[in-house]
Write a structure and sequence with these properties.
The complex is a heterodimer. Chain A has helices at residues 35-44, 46-58, 92-102, 152-159, and strands spanning 65-73, 79-87, 115-124, 127-129, 135-136. Chain A is of the alpha+beta class. In chain A, helix 2 (46-58) packs antiparallel against helix 3. By secondary structure, chain B is mainly β. Chain B has helices at residues 7-20, 24-27, 144-149, and strands at 33-47, 62-78, 84-90, 94-96, 104-105, 112-117, 123-127, 161-172, 176-191, 195-210, 215-230, 235-251, 257-270. The chains are: A alpha+beta, B mainly beta. At the A-B interface, helix 4 of A face strand 1, strand 2, strand 3, strand 6 and strand 12 of B.
Chain lengths: 161, 277
């Protein structure tokens, strides 16, 4: 299935809220997983993915390009269902290794339905490059404020596009 | 005797004390949980830029649904402006197309928001509302449940009446927002050492903007209901309501105008109370 991922936010531009200001909201209450938190854990766990590349290069295989991996974060925080969205590695063993590692990731439990996440592994100059973004499938919300089902005909008639 | 404060202030203070400094009496009860049942009827009409009826809306001209479930509210924190935050969590929420079922779990189940407000009942924000909004959750349509479990009730003697205004915003991200208000006249109809029964009747108003949809919203309507408060701790035991609100939306992009009349009858009952919803 082709998932349409939308970039929610650039992680580097995100903050978790500023303390000390009446006007500024406090940090969240950890009810839901936020994009920076998912990204931070990916960065922490990058070494285990890098090991996949190390194995491939040790075997004399060429590893270049990007491998875009999708996975799901269940409400209990566990990653599952990892799949290759797009791969330029040309190495099935490497891709499988990345999927195995992705399926062992553990995030915090959250209140949202399973989250569809995408992350591009970019290997360049013999190093797995930390990618500055995480991709999360956005829940469609087209016709708010009315009790109407998602219907393309309604979308066209009301939103005009 | 009731204090001079309005009911939510006392109830919220009790909850706050529960979280800040353990109180064996309050803690033993746990966070309050309300079970609810509601029936909803929606009538939708729309015209396009030429004033012609929108054919795509015809299949949805009349819709009905029934919902049942539970809501809990737990004190979370105090903000620097002295407002407070409570986590309101949806338990198992089920929907049905008839009052007798079959019932199916909705995606509202397990969702939670932080309700930020003041002791006087003023609601400043619902953090996390974007997780409730949109089909098939429709939290932005069912937002009245937050007033359902936390109405702003004046302190009145039997036979007295008083007005209260209750605001509640519903913000979906930074570009979609609706601000609703209930202006209600309350009348104390019964009072015993255990319970106070208050009726209310009033009007609903609201305005909003949905920038991604290029839409502006206007809300009008009527509301009436009855609230039973527990005297000992000023907590809400029961709330029955009958609200009709009309959501009118102008879509600037298409020129379409849609009006949906949303009629809700609902009953909220605190768990552990005597009667069932």
């Amino acid at each position: 299935m082709n998932l349409f991922f939308l970039v929610l936010e650039l992680v580097i531009s995100q903050g978790l809220g500023t303390r000390g200001s009446v006007a500024t909201d406090a940090a969240g209450l950890d009810l839901y997983l936020e994009t920076p938190e998912i990204h931070a854990l990916m960065m922490e766990q990058l070494e285990r993915f890098e090991a996949c590349y190390a194995d491939a290069t040790a075997a004399g295989q060429v590893t270049v390009g990007e491998v875009f991996v999708n996975f799901t974060i269940a409400p209990n925080g566990k990653a599952q269902g990892a799949s290759i969205h797009a791969s330029k590695s040309g190495l099935k063993e490497l891709d499988d290794c990345l999927l195995d590692q992705a399926n062992t990731l553990e995030f915090r439990a959250h209140d949202e339905e399973p989250l569809q996440v995408g992350y591009p592994f970019v290997y360049m100059d013999a190093v797995l490059q930390p990618y500055p973004m995480i991709f999360i499938e956005e829940r469609p919300m087209e016709l708010l404020w009315l009790r109407l089902p998602p219907d393309p005909a309604l979308h066209q008639a009301l939103l005009g596009n | 005797m009731f204090s001079a404060l309005i009911f939510p202030a006392r109830a919220f203070s009790a909850l706050m004390a529960c979280a800040a400094t353990p109180d064996p009496i309050v803690v033993s009860e746990g966070p309050p949980v309300w079970r609810f049942e509601l029936a909803a009827h929606y009538q939708t009409l729309g015209v396009d830029a030429e004033g012609e009826e929108i054919a795509a809306l015809v299949p949805y001209a009349e819709q009905q649904e029934w919902l049942r479930g539970s809501l809990s509210r737990s004190y979370a924190r105090r903000y620097q402006d002295d407002s407070q935050g409570w986590v309101v969590r949806f338990g198992l929420i089920e929907t049905a197309a008839t009052p007798d079922g079959p019932w199916t779990r909705t995606e509202l189940t397990g969702k939670s928001v932080e309700l930020r407000g003041f002791d006087n009942g003023e609601v400043l924000a619902l953090r996390g509302a974007e997780h409730l909004a949109g089909a098939p959750r429709f939290g932005e349509v069912l937002d009245f449940v937050f007033v359902g479990i936390s109405p702003t009730v004046p302190d009145l003697k039997v036979g007295e009446s008083g007005w209260r205004r209750q605001n509640w915003p519903f913000l979906v991200g930074k570009q979609r927002r609706m601000h609703s208000t209930l202006h209600a006249e309350w009348t104390a109809v019964e009072r015993s050492p255990q319970r106070a029964v208050m009726d209310y009747q009033g009007k609903l108003e609201g305005r909003g903007l949905d920038t991604p949809a290029k839409a502006s919203m206007t809300l009008t309507g009527q509301a009436e209901g009855q609230v039973v408060m527990r005297v000992a701790d000023a907590s809400m035991e029961k709330h029955t309501l009958d609200w009709t609100r009309v959501m009118a939306i102008d879509y600037q992009g298409s020129g379409a105008q849609v009006t949906q009349t949303q009629h809700f009858t609902a009953k909220f009952l605190r768990s552990g109370s005597e009667s069932s919803p």
